[in-house]
Amino acid sequence: MRELLQDLFEKRMGLFVSEKRSNKLFFPKAERKQEALAKRSAEIVKINASGKIVEEAEEEQFQTLKYAAHYQYLIKQKGLLYLEEEVEERIAKFYKGALVMDEEIVKPIQNQSVSQEVIEPVLPEHDERISYEYNRLKAVQYAERWWNTNNPAFKKFENNCTNYISQCLRAGEAPMRGHPNRGNGWWYQHTNWSYSWVVAHSLKNYLGISKSGLRAKEVSSPDQLILGDVICYDFEGDGRFNHNTMVTGRDANGMPLVNANTYNSRMRYWAYEDSSAYTPNIRYKFYSIFDE
User: Fold this and answer.
1) Which of 191, 198, 242, 285 could form a disulfide bond with 110, CB atoms 3.0-4.6 angstroms apart?
2) pTM for the full predicted model
3) For residues 282 and 235, is the Cβ–Cβ distance under 8 A?
4) What's the confidence (pLDDT) of residue 20?
5) CA pair distance 291, 14, nearest whole angstrom
6) What is the Cα–Cα distance from 56 to 2, expressed in whole angstroms?
7) Distance, CA of 35 to chain centre
8) Which residues contact 150 (CB under 8 A, 6 or more apart)?
């Protein structure tokens, strides 16, 4: 089984740097990646790929592998070189050792029920803001440390993107508030948490209306964001936001590179045009976290 997986990776790696489109017809991931990079005048100059078998099965002359693929792309853009990484789950099937299918396992996009709405009360005029100083360096360091593994101090969810971003914000010393009301504030307490801590749309709502504790300002374009800021994604453009990322770097054009969970990735270009979840209807929200 391991030999089959190794051979698969050796064949796949060349597709990310090949200029022959016909070679990528059965591996659209490579084509999406190259097209997205070309729009930014960037290219992959080197790639490493490795796989870890998650499940394996064999029946008669068929072999099935469920595996985690870890890609490392050395990207060149103008005079800048940087390393982008991502991990995805895939399933491959072989017949007599010959590959017959290799597909990404598409995880369900996070949706939100009405009961998970964040309801923020109107604060009285004399209400004092919780004083804090947002430590962007610590937030980004946390994002880098835990992008591809789970911090055991927190529960891991099937759709973990917002839980991960909340942990990054908390590592940056953003204050929690609202416990124990799950529909109020932003908080995590052992076996309980607010909707805004774990649900993408709820965090987007919270950042847009919070007047106390963790607060943010919505800006109109991604180039206005700095390290430690947050981008929210509505892939279908239906008004329900289902993904969040944190800005952890900048490319040669000064545009954000981001880290994320669920589809674990680091230093990925903010627009997500290379993602299988991307649609032409995608909408974004850009939030700059208040420093105090």
Assistant:
1) 242
2) 0.93
3) yes
4) 67
5) 44
6) 10
7) 20
8) 156, 160
